[in-house]
């Protein structure tokens, strides 16, 4: 799989830009702040329907415009598919596949499989658990797009359940012993457990499949003897990692019942996959707080390279994007990373200085600046 073309209209800093790509290494070169990351952000948005830089769509639309358009031509097994997205903050986004409208925007998921490594990925090691949960869920959806619906259903139920708990909390605060109406909480518990068990079971399977790839990628990038290990840590007792989905559902229902008093007192749902953690260890120590800057970069890279390898094992080689990565790596890590990915179907690299990119990845060159992208 590779991206043959990208067109942006009123996306970020671009009024309009068209870029023609080819397979192999493609290097976007230009000073900081000229829009290199905007290009790869658009590609990642097509693949995930989310930005890795901002939580909402509004910043994606050029100042003064009402909507942004992204068109991406994807080639897979010698067949080309055009994916079109219209991003309209405050309204439902619209999408087309092969120039035909789709019923739901998420129906385009899977058309472009892409793995992006960016400086923001350091938060996978040093940041909150939500960053690591997002990594897992994005990979779940990339492998099986139906999980976009599962995650959406879980988030919807969680929002409704939190609203009910919040109203009960506020009623207690303002009305003394009056606790608000919690008569429907059992119903929301059942729905939360059903959708939550699907997510937890899928995440457990994913982490089991991902773990050996992470260990292998970390060893290759860092040339370290320390083992990189990952493990999924649910926020409620699960019998074991091989538990059936029905058993996980029952365990989550039990945990919700045990936590109900505390949840009502605090006005928020305290157990479920939205509170789970992906535990990262390096040797015998947790990576967060103990890994050096270089080790953290290597670990973050290993997580993305492991995702890439897992998707490739599924039968579709994804596009790999390395956004401003090499400037942060020492010479040894640069060369080892380049050696690992140089044979990929397509690698899109951004850099401020040509010399930062190892020779193995110096393929097609694109100069970025002044709102334009010039090939050559």
UniProtKB/TrEMBL annotation:
Keyword check for Zinc: no
Cellular location(s): Cytoplasm
Annotated GO MF terms: ATP binding; single-stranded DNA binding
AAA+ ATPase domain sequence ranges: 22-372
The entry's keywords: ATP-binding, Cytoplasm, DNA damage, DNA repair, DNA replication, DNA-binding, Nucleotide-binding, SOS response
GO CC annotation, single: cytoplasm
Top-level taxonomic group: Bacteria
Entry keyword Cell division: no
Binding site for ATP: 30-37
PROSITE patterns: RECF_2 (PS00618)
SUPFAM superfamilies: P-loop containing nucleoside triphosphate hydrolases
A GO biological-process term: DNA replication
UniProt family annotation: Belongs to the RecF family.
Annotated HAMAP family: RecF
Protein role: The RecF protein is involved in DNA metabolism; it is required for DNA replication and normal SOS inducibility. RecF binds preferentially to single-stranded, linear DNA. It also seems to bind ATP.
PANTHER family recorded: DNA REPLICATION AND REPAIR PROTEIN RECF (PTHR32182)
Entry protein name: DNA replication and repair protein RecF
Organism name: Dactylosporangium siamense
Organism classification: Bacteria, Bacillati, Actinomycetota, Actinomycetes, Micromonosporales
Gene name, Swiss-Prot/TrEMBL: recF
